[in-house]
Q: What sequence folds into this?
C-alpha cells in the first residue's frame, strides 16, 4: 500500500487526476520513501517473480484510527470542546475515503487485479482542511469561528493530491459511503470508545512529532490552544507544555505560468497536444519554422515571438508513409527526423528551455521491413 503523495503536488486547476502511469515526483521525505519502496517491490517482482500489486490511495478515515490523523484528532478535540488546530491557512485540499470503501477496493484488487499492476484508490470529492474542521464543529454544535485556530504550517504541506481512479472502477469498484455518512459512523465509534487508545494527549497537539525532535529552541504552551474552549481544565492544560524547534515560516509557493511552443501542429500528435492545451486553458502557439531546413534563426524567431516556457516537438517525416519510403528517401528522412530535431534541441539548450521530442513509427504493416534495422528506426535512435 503506497500513497497518492508519490505523484507529488497536483496543480490547483487540474481537472484530470494522476493516473497509474504518471511520473512519480514526491516532494517530501515521507512520500519519497514510499516511492522508493514501490521501486524496490517492483524490482523484486521483475527479478524474482514476486506476485506484487501496488495501490496508491487518498486519505483514509474511520473507526479505530490513531488520533494523530486529522479526522480522529479533530473529533476527539471537539468532544472535549477544545480548539481544532489547522496547519497553515486551511486551504489545502484533500480527498477522504471511508475505510470500508477502501477495504472493498483491496478485496476487488486482490481477486480481479493483475499482478505487477498499480491501482489508484481515490475519490473525485475533495475538501479543504478548513471545511473538514467546520463540518466536525457543526456535529458538536461548536462555533468554528471560536473553535478553529490556524497554527504554524508544516515544513512540507502540498496543496493538493488528485487521482484518476478509472482503472479501479473498470474492475467494478465504486465509492459507496458519502462524506456525511462516513463522518457520522466515525463520530459514533469515538463517542463510544473515547479511551480506546489510552493517553493520546501528545497526539492531539498541533505538531505531535515535535515532541521527539532535538535542537529545541522555543516553547509552545497548549493553554493558548484551549483558552477559548468552554470545558477545558486550565490546570490540566498547563501540564501539556511541549518543547518544539523553531521552524522557518513557509514562503507561499509561486505558481509558475506555463506556455508551450508546439512543432508538428499539422500532424496528429502535435494537433492533439494543442487541443489538450486549449481544453486545459494552457497557453500555446504552433511553431512556424520548418525544422527540416535546419535554420536556427527561424526557431529563434518563434521563441522570441511566443516566449514559451516549454517546447514540444512532434514534427517529422512519418504518418501514412511505410518503411520502404524511408529507405528510398534517406536525405529527406535525415533532414526531418535527425537534423531538424537536433537543431531544435540545440537552440532550446542555448535558450534554457526544456524540450520534449515525440518520435513514433510510420505504417508498420510492411512487416518485411518492420525491424529495428530499418533506416527509419535508425534515424529515430539518433535523437533518442
A:
Amino acid at each position: 500500500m503506497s500513497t497518492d503523495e508519490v505523484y507529488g503536488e497536483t496543480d490547483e486547476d487540474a481537472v484530470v487526476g494522476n493516473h497509474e502511469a504518471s511520473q512519480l515526483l514526491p516532494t517530501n521525505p515521507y512520500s519519497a520513501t514510499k516511492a522508493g519502496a514501490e521501486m524496490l517491490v517492483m524490482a523484486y517482482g521483475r527479478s524474482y517473480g514476486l506476485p506484487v500489486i501496488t495501490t496508491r490511495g487518498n486519505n483514509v478515515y474511520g473507526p479505530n484510527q490513531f488520533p494523530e490523523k486529522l479526522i480522529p484528532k479533530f473529533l476527539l478535540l471537539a468532544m472535549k470542546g477544545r480548539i481544532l488546530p489547522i496547519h497553515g491557512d486551511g486551504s489545502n485540499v484533500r480527498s477522504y475515503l471511508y475505510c470500508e470503501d477502501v477495504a472493498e477496493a483491496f478485496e476487488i484488487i486482490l481477486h480481479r487485479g493483475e499482478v505487477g499492476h498499480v491501482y489508484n484508490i481515490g475519490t473525485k470529492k475533495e475538501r479543504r482542511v478548513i471545511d473538514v474542521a467546520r463540518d466536525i464543529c457543526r456535529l458538536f454544535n461548536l462555533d468554528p469561528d471560536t473553535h478553529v485556530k490556524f497554527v504554524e504550517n508544516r515544513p512540507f504541506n502540498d496543496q493538493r493530491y488528485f487521482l484518476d481512479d478509472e482503472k479501479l472502477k473498470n474492475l467494478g469498484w465504486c465509492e459507496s459511503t458519502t462524506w456525511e455518512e462516513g463522518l457520522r459512523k466515525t463520530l459514533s465509534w469515538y463517542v463510544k470508545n473515547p479511551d480506546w487508545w489510552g493517553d493520546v494527549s501528545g497526539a492531539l497537539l498541533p505538531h505531535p512529532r515535535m515532541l521527539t525532535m532535538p535542537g529545541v529552541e522555543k516553547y509552545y504552551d497548549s493553554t493558548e490552544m484551549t483558552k477559548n474552549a468552554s470545558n477545558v481544565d486550565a490546570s490540566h492544560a498547563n501540564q501539556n507544555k511541549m518543547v518544539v524547534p523553531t521552524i522557518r515560516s513557509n514562503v507561499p509557493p509561486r505558481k509558475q505560468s506555463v506556455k508551450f511552443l508546439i512543432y508538428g501542429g499539422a500532424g496528429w500528435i502535435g494537433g492533439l497536444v494543442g487541443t489538450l492545451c486549449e481544453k486545459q486553458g494552457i497557453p500555446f502557439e504552433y511553431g512556424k519554422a520548418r525544422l527540416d531546413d535546419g535554420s536556427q534563426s527561424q526557431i529563434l524567431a518563434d521563441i522570441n515571438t511566443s516566449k514559451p516556457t516549454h517546447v514540444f516537438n512532434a514534427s517529422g517525416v512519418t504518418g501514412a508513409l511505410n518503411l520502404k519510403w524511408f529507405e528510398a528517401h534517406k536525405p529527406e528522412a535525415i533532414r526531418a527526423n535527425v537534423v531538424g530535431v537536433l537543431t531544435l534541441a540545440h537552440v532550446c539548450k542555448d535558450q534554457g528551455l526544456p524540450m520534449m521530442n515525440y518520435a513514433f513509427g510510420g505504417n508498420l504493416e510492411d512487416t518485411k521491413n518492420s525491424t529495428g534495422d530499418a533506416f527509419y528506426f535508425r534515424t529515430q535512435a539518433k535523437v533518442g
Summary: The CA atoms of residues 260 and 310 lie 5 Å apart. The chain has two domains: 2-197, 260-382. The first strand starts at residue 2 and ends at 3.
